[in-house]
Specification:
Largest sheet: 8 strands, mixed
CATH architecture of the largest domain: 3-Layer(aba) Sandwich
Radius of gyration: 26 Å
Oligomer: single chain
Number of helices: 13
Shape: elongated
Distance between the termini: 43 Å
Number of domains: 2
Strand content: 15-25%
CATH class of the largest domain: Alpha Beta
Structural class: alpha/beta
CATH superfamily of the largest domain: CoaB-like
CATH topology of the largest domain: Rossmann fold
């Protein structure tokens, strides 16, 4: 299990500024951004003018979800100076690749681009990973500049490595291996507090990029909100879910062209009733009936799926009173409440879809075409159980989050999640608006459905050719 799944991603909550200068190795900065994000970091990118000729700002903006700083005089939408905001809030600045020109400019305090200016303006640690031709690296001027940055400025230098160079020669000058750069960042920040935890003080997120209509013709079923289990006619056992995450998923799916059935338990947000089929439920039992009806037309043994994907974002009560009272209970009589576990609805849906009985044995044909199943797991303090839940429920993806973390719990507009796949991969997302989390999740759903259909077409053609 990865550190991220265990809740120990080493850069959780950190804002890392990634400065990219004009080396042909600039393309590697894209993968470096991914590695930093996989460690839990929120990454914002600064590009020198020459770097932007190698890799465009759009690539970095799409991956970082932040506007990319390229011009010294550019202002943020709220009027703040972009590179100054980064300098004031970043936990660390990573310059990778750093050219010989940038090393010389930085060593002499020449703020001619946003990367140098941010480094001059920050008190955060700076990690520098040079990349250049071998003779340029060994030149006394370059070595003098590197020594000054390291010894006088306190910068961490991740030295280049030997190997083939862009000039066609071989020698020292290749950008260090990306994991080594990540390790240098982790080492410099180890044991330090997050510099600026307030998201409002940090660089803003870029406007959410519209997705293609890649779910057109798909039927997506989404559950949202929290179920309520009655104690008596006026009291119930419930949870803190507001339905914001589920509704965000439903709205994102609608905007991508899907036909959406939204099964809503107790919610505190407006529902897209004008665009989606909305089914209202209250208890776990009612949710079960609505699910089976929407997905399979009842609790029988379906041969054909009536849906393409299920996203089970509802917070289903784990327990219900054994004997709900038929009348309002009187306070003076006291109350001893006996509870029983409710059914695991998602696991039941997965068994039906896969043709399994309650014991996990194959007793019928799987539903075709194979539906894509997504579950949610709300945890507190640790995500250690998430991988086990993924396997136990039999779903394709499990979205886990720590609801005790600030900004990631019930009722918030943001969420920090880890997406675990049944096929072994997992990815931790930074703190994002719930709508952005929804779209990133649906990116995976849409791609999986396309792959499913392509595999089915290939199998059909092979069958015809026999």
């Amino acid at each position: 299990m990865t550190d991220r799944v265990r809740g120990r991603a080493r850069l959780d909550g950190r804002l890392i500024a990634l400065g990219v200068t004009g080396s042909i190795a600039a393309y590697k900065a894209v993968e470096l951004l991914r590695l930093l994000a996989a460690e839990g970091a929120d990454v914002v990118v600064l590009l020198s003018p020459s770097a932007a000729r190698f890799v465009g700002p759009l690539t970095f903006e799409a991956l970082s979800r932040h506007p990319v700083e390229t011009e010294l005089m550019e202002l943020l939408p709220d009027g703040r100076i972009g590179h100054i905001v980064i300098a004031d809030t970043a936990d660390a600045v990573v310059v990778a690749p750093a050219t010989a020109h940038w090393l010389g400019a930085m060593a002499n305090g020449l703020a001619g681009d946003v990367v140098t200016a941010a480094c001059l303006a920050t008190s955060a640690p700076v990690i520098v990973a040079p990349a250049m031709d071998g003779d340029m690296w060994t030149h006394p001027a370059t070595q003098s500049n590197v020594a000054r940055l390291r010894d006088a400025f306190g910068y961490a230098i991740v030295a280049p490595e030997s190997g083939p160079l862009a000039s066609g020669q071989s020698g020292i000058g290749r950008l260090a291996e990306l994991p080594a750069i990540v390790e240098a960042v982790v080492a410099r920040l180890s044991g330090t507090a997050v510099r600026q935890p307030d998201a409002a003080a940090r660089p803003p997120l870029a406007p959410t990029a519209p997705r293609d209509a890649d779910l057109t013709g798909r039927h997506v079923v989404v559950t949202a909100g929290g179920t309520r289990e009655p104690i008596d006619p006026v009291r119930f056992i419930g949870n803190r879910s507001t339905g914001k995450m589920g509704v965000a998923i439903a709205e994102a799916a609608l905007n991508r062209g899907a036909r959406v059935t939204l099964i809503a338990a107790d919610v505190s947000v407006a529902l897209p009733e004008d665009r989606a089929r909305v089914v209202r439920v209250e208890t776990t039992g009612e949710l079960r009936g609505a699910l089976l009806d929407a997905l399979f037309g009842g609790a029988g043994s379906p041969a054909t799926a009536r849906f393409d994907a299920l996203v089970m974002a509802a917070a289903v009560s784990d327990f219900a009173p054994v004997r709900p009272a038929g009348r309002k209970l009187v306070r003076s009589e006291g109350l001893n409440l006996e509870l029983e576990a409710t059914p695991d609805l998602l696991a039941e849906v997965a068994r039906i879809a896969h043709g399994l009985d309650a014991a996990g044995d194959e007793t019928r044909a799987p539903v075709a075409p194979r539906p894509f199943l997504v579950g949610f797991a709300a945890e507190t303090g640790s995500l250690d159980r998430a991988a086990d839940k993924l396997r136990a429920k039999g779903v394709d993806l499990l979205v886990a989050n720590d609801v005790a973390e600030a900004g990631s719990g019930f009722g918030t507009d943001t969420n920090r999640v880890v997406i675990l796949s049944a096929y072994g991969a997992s990815e931790g997302l930074p703190l994002l608006p719930k709508r952005e989390v929804a779209d990133r999740l649906l990116d995976r759903v849409a791609a999986a459905l396309d792959a499913r259909d392509a595999a089915g077409q290939t199998a059909g053609m092979q069958e015809v050719s026999r």
